Amino acid sequence: MSQLQHLALHGDAVAYRMSGRGEGETLLLVHGMAGSSATWRAVLPQLAQRYRVLAPDLPGHGDSAKPRGDYSLGAFAAWLRDLLHELGIERVTVIGQSLGGGVAMQFSYQHPELCDRLVLIGSGGLGPDVNWTLRLLAAPGSEFLLPLVAPAAVRDAGNKVRGWLAAVGIQSVRGDEMWNAYASLSDSDTRQAFLRTLRAVVDHRGQAVSALSRLYLNEGLPTQLIWGDSDGIIPVAHGYAAHEAIPGSRLAVLDGVGHYPHLEDPAAVVDIIDDFVSTTPART
Q1: Which of 30, 82, 112, 115 could form a disulfide with 96 if both were Cys (CB 3.0 to 4.6 A apart)?
Q2: Where in the numbering of this chain does the AB hydrolase-1 domain appear (predicted)?
Q3: Residue 2 is a catalytic residue
């Protein structure tokens, strides 16, 4: 996978990965909550063989700055617009996973002139249902609980155990990604950004932001949905509902796959994205 690159945007540090062909289609990969551009590690090299691929660390995530500021979907979408402008990229196919799907939809609404196509992978923002853990963490007072349940000592010990298990061939890509998200919360600044991001979209009743009533705004935007039928974070029913609500959309449901199709079945995800982009004209 390509190395992290860095630039300053509005005075804040931005980390991103960019690789692939310098001309033709550009894919913008938007990761999920408590994730980073590293979540695309299994698909980015293959996609970069045919496309220019940009995968940033969103504000508050990964190696990007974690300012005390706005972590709403609209703020993330505007940030992506400004990043594309800074990099001289005029149009993209935007691909979002989990929270990144909600950001991708918001980006397509706010900046349709920049968006050729939309790909949603286990996307948030399409109904209230979400894993109970996120509902609990969104509740008042969790900022006092998180330092106790995600201390640096537990992170370090867990990383050692993961290393031992990997050495004897015991690995789970789904478990690894969940651990990476948990381990990131051992950092105070990351915790604060995580809570601001989470509470912008989730409360104790579930997802508080839904795009289902506004999907008509994207009429004419080619859309591909990808879901795992074993997604325990955001149920596959959301994918079916969105597919029904978006005329002309495509839906691919992967058997035995959970919330991270791009890690659990990367070959299938690459094939789906490649077929979608190569056979679907960009929105004019």
Answers
A1: 30
A2: 26-266
A3: no
Catalytic status, residue 98: yes
* Torsion (CA) 1, 79, 100, 47 in degrees, nearest 10: -30
Q: Where are the beta strands (DSSP E) in 98-247?
A: 115-121, 202-203, 206-207, 223-228
Write down the catalytic residue from 19, 36, 186, 231: 231
The CATH number, out of the four listed (1.20.1250.20, 3.40.50.1820, 3.30.1950.10, 3.40.50.2300), of the domain defined by the range 5-129+209-279: 3.40.50.1820
Q: What is the DSSP string of 56-94?
A: EPPTTSTTS---SS--SHHHHHHHHHHHHHHHT---EEE
123 included as an active-site residue? no
Which member of 31, 243, 259, 262 is catalytic? 259
Looking up tokens 């008509």 gives: 216
Question: Across the strands, what pairs with 14?
Answer: 7
Active-site position among 98, 123, 184, 249: 98
**pLDDT tens figures, 176-218:** 787 777 777 788 899 899 989 999 999 888 888 888 888 887 8
Q: Average model confidence (pLDDT) for the chain?
A: 89
d(Cα 77, Cα 79) in Å, to the nearest integer?
5
In this prediction the pTM is 0.91
Q: What element of type H or E holds 29?
A: strand 26-30
